[in-house]
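Same chain as my last thread, 53 residues:
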Amino acid sequence: MERLAVSLPYHSATDRLVALWLAVLGFGPSVEILANYEKGEYLSMSGNMQVNQ
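reply #2:
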């Protein structure tokens, strides 16, 4: 299991550009790939998003 956080730019209700931080959790073979990335590197991913409040 590998965890990392990614920042997505979005416009807030006050129309300011802010960063939305998402926690990403990887399982299985993707863990070895994610472990090779370092802060500041570009990463493309796809999957489902689950919101817990």
